[in-house]
Design a protein that fits this description.
The chain is of the alpha/beta class. The protein has helices spanning 19-29, 59-67, 86-94, 105-114, 128-138, 143-157, 172-187, 190-196, 198-203, and strands at 8-12, 33-35, 39-40, 55-56, 71-77, 80-85, 98-102, 119-124, 165-168. 27% of the residues are buried. It is an enzyme of class 2 (transferase).
Length: 208
């Protein structure tokens, strides 16, 4: 089997839609998909490991990387920078690895300007009422923050038409199955399979 170029999967969702849990479940089920580890200027949270959850850097270091053109995409969210290394993405996809980016809608647009074939997946809550319940159930945000996140969610949901797939996270297991189905369908597309299975297919061609 020959080497094929890897795919880029972009997973976007409003805060509270369950994106992080779904991505973790997907990566466990699809060991051939790698999570892109973003750079950020925010402080590590309890249990977060540098290089595993994020690359934690200073604001000055991040802005130096911006100036050097090191990022495929970056954005400032709630006062902190987040960005994806363009060199790492190019190296891994060129080596045939599938990469998943768990980013916001701004980052998704930036990525697809450079990689228009990247597969966009939007995680949608079943309703705004359920989303609000999830956000308040966290018990970590003030009423003002919850209201702001809900307003932002409405704006993000208005952009769902920009994505290739929409997965509704109502029942978690169904949403996980749907997300995995999207990944597998992309991996089995004919152009990619023809590239990957070139030698096998050549042996199956009619003689003469």
């Amino acid at each position: 089997m020959s080497m094929s170029t890897g795919s880029i999967f972009i997973v976007v969702a409003p805060s509270g839609a369950g994106k992080t849990s779904l991505v973790a479940a997907l990566l466990k089920a699809a060991s051939d998909v790698e999570l892109s580890v973003s750079f950020t200027t925010r402080a590590p949270r309890a249990g977060e490991v540098d290089g595993q959850h994020y690359h934690f850097v200073s604001r000055d270091a991040f802005e130096a990387m911006i100036a050097a053109g090191d990022f495929l995409e970056y954005a400032e969210v709630y006062g902190n920078y987040y960005g994806t290394s363009v060199r790492w993405i190019r190296e891994r996809t060129a080596a045939g690895h599938d990469i998943l980016l768990e980013i916001d809608w701004q980052g998704a647009r930036q990525v697809r300007e450079i990689f228009p074939d990247a597969v966009g997946i939007f995680i949608l809550p079943p309703s705004l009422q359920v989303l609000e319940s999830r956000l308040r159930g966290r018990g970590t945000d003030s009423t003002e923050v919850v209201e702001r996140r809900l307003a932002e969610a409405r704006a993000e949901i208005a952009l769902v038409g920009e994505y290739d797939y929409i997965v509704v996270n109502d029942e978690f297991e169904q949403a996980r199955t749907d997300l995995l189905a999207v990944v597998r369908a992309v991996q089995l597309r004919a152009p990619r399979q023809c590239e990957r299975l070139a030698r096998v297919l050549a042996q199956m061609q009619p003689a003469g």
